[in-house]
Amino acid sequence: MIQDTPSLIAAIRDRFAHVDSCPFQGPRIFFENAGGALTLKSVVETSAKYAAIPDNQGRDNPAAHALVATIEKAKADLALFMNASSGQFFAGESGTELLFRMIRTACVNAPKGSKVIGSSIEHPASRSAARRWAEISGLDYVNVQHDDDTGTVRPEDYAALMTPDVSVATILHASPVTGMGMDVAAISKAIRAVSPDCLIVVDGIQHAAHGQLNIDSYGIDGYAISPYKVFSRHGYGIAWVSDRFGAMPHDKLIGAPATGWEFGTRDTGAYATISDVVAYFEWLGGEISDETDRRARIEAAGRAIHSYETSLTNAMINGTGNLPGLRDMAHIRILGGADNPAREGLVSIVVEGMPSPDVVTRLNEQGIRTHTRKADHYSSNVLDPLGLPDCIRISLCHYNTEAEIAQLLAALKEMADVSE
After folding, report:
1. Which fold has domain 2-41+303-414?
2. Who's near 333: CB < 8 A, 6+ residues apart?
3. Which residue of 191, 219, 357, 358 is surrounded by the most CB atoms within 10 Å?
4. What does the DSSP 8-state code read for residue 38?
């Protein structure tokens, strides 16, 4: 596995740009991955290559044909990466924009007077869209309250509020505030047990970099990711819709294909960088397993990433070397609890007696990049019930190391005297 192979960790880190230094700050440890993961060097090269090409898709010339082939390859790679044997992928402005578009389409096609169900743990990308379009479409919105102590929502929480007239449902795959993952397949099953034809849309933006994606196993109709959070770059989002969902009436140009969801000419370079991401997962799977099948390698990489990131968060919580972990620091409070198997590469904390922005500044002065989550329109749904105005989000990926965790713990340990 990754944690047992120092040479592999070095090889992994070598594939990412700015892995240990910021072009504006200098040397730094990057624990701000939930805000946007590091970018593969291959993605940077691919972006530059395609940015220089003047041609568009859909023309009868060699360049246009090559661009179309690049996009088709990327969509095939996405189907492999996310294990989607049917449906279609398309690009949009961002993951948030795509969630709004899918949820809007689901709501306006829903029977009047039916219901939309979603949970309070959701990022506003899906929650705002569901509440807005439920109201516009004459639907009732049903809120599933998440558990404040664990930072999760469970299938039985959905099941308790499900009725046959629920026509649209939204699910968060992983929270960017608590770091906890939800059992999408089990929640979807609970929904369909009561309302089999419900349209189910999933926000997979936070989850995508931290574990396996397996759309065929979820029993859903829509899924969105933001590639800049899974080793690609900013400027676009990717969505998948089921064949049933894709054929429903939706925003499109008059006379355009009935199942087309994209608007205008897409950035071929954005699609091409998705192929770079998938190739990276295949490479990693080949390094930590004997698998030769492409999907099997991707699955092996996903298991290794999850296992390694769990070991890193455990080191952060329980300590490493002679350094105490977060659970043993009296001045630290861990959101979601110290022992939470739902955690995916993210630990949010509060330093007693110190505003979170001050903690983030102190860490940044020591070259440790973290982030403040405030009880604003992004995070108040999680922080307000806990009575917290803010927290410090420490988010990592599989290119981080235990040595970096140790530096973080040493810096936080020194804050004990300040917080007293």
Report:
1. Aspartate Aminotransferase, domain 1 (3.90.1150)
2. 349, 350, 352
3. 191
4. P
Residue with tokens 């969509």: 75
| Angle, alpha carbons 361-364-365 (nearest 5°) | 90
* Close Cβ partners of 404 (under 8 Å, ≥ 6 residues apart): 29, 31
Say if CB 213 and CB 229 are below 8 A apart: no
Q: What is the mean pLDDT of each run of 10 residues along the chain (420 residues)?
A: 85 98 96 97 98 92 95 98 98 97 98 97 95 97 96 97 98 95 98 98 96 94 98 97 97 91 91 98 96 97 96 97 96 95 96 96 97 87 91 97 97 79
Which among 231, 122, 232 has a CA at the least distance from the CA of 177?
A: 122
CATH 3.40.630.40 assigned to 45-278: no
Domains 2-41+303-414 and 45-278 share a fold: no
Return d(Cα 141, Cα 219) in angstroms, integer.
22
